[in-house]
Amino acid sequence: MDAWEVEARVEIAALVTAYNALGDRGRFDELLTLFADDATMDIGDGSSYEGRDGIERIFTGTRDSVREGSGPAFLQHHTTSVHVTFEDHDTATGDAYFTVMSDLGIDHWGRYRDAYRRIDGAWRFGSRRVRVDGRTPGGWADRRMGPDS
User: Fold this and answer.
1) Residue 26: which of 53, 64, 63, 51 has the closest Cα?
2) What's the sign of the alpha-carbon dihedral 59, 48, 77, 30?
3) How far apart are the first and last CA of the chain?
4) What is the DSSP string of 37-72?
5) For 25-76, what is each residue's pLDDT tens digit?
6) According to the model, what pLDDT value does residue 10 have?
7) E-assigned strands of the chain?
8) Close Cβ partners of 35 (under 8 Å, ≥ 6 residues apart)
9) Torsion of CA 31, 112, 40, 19, to 10 degrees
10) In a 3-state reduction of DSSP, which class is residue 144?
11) d(CA 101, CA 84)
12) pLDDT digits (tens, 9 = 90+) for 72-128
């Protein structure tokens, strides 16, 4: 493995880690800088969120749902190591599994499918697809998504 690839893998792993750390703490302005200006995000709800403004709606909607009082005291995302495939020095794709914990235990779990681009020397999300593979019955995600989604 060449030195550029080792460095890129470390930077991409830090990008994925920062996404969950910043999101879980409600630091959305910082989180949005992890995305390319024209990035897209698909969370499996039938919509595609485009650009940083569109992607921001995902996080503010989740925040508002948690704050309604019927949500958990907190959500905490745990991500596996990222499997990265490079197309070249500036573009790559990656996959990772995630588990989301709340104050009541495991809430839901699934996987990320990402496209990464290096922009001005920093790796950013070009796109992110989130798929929930399972939910704890009666948990926050189960109540939010409904039993048939």
Assistant:
1) 63
2) negative
3) 42
4) EEEEEE-SSS--EEHHHHHHHHHHHHHHHHHTTTS-
5) 889 999 999 999 999 999 988 888 999 989 988 877 665 555 566 677 888 9
6) 96
7) 35-42, 49-50, 75-79, 83-88, 91-102, 105-119, 122-135
8) 41, 52, 55, 124, 125, 128
9) 0
10) helix
11) 25
12) 788 899 999 899 999 999 999 999 999 999 988 999 999 999 999 999 999 999 999
Tokens at 26, concatenated: 């409600």
CB 140 within 8 A of CB 66: yes
Do residues 76 and 102 lie in contact, with contact meaning Cβ atoms separated by under 8 Å? yes
Distances (CA, A) of 56 to 27, 30, 92: 11, 11, 23
- Domains of the chain in start order, with CATH, are 3-145 (3.10.450.50)
Query: E strand or H helix at 6, and its extent?
Result: helix 3-24
Q: Which two tokens stand for residue 72?
A: 């958990």
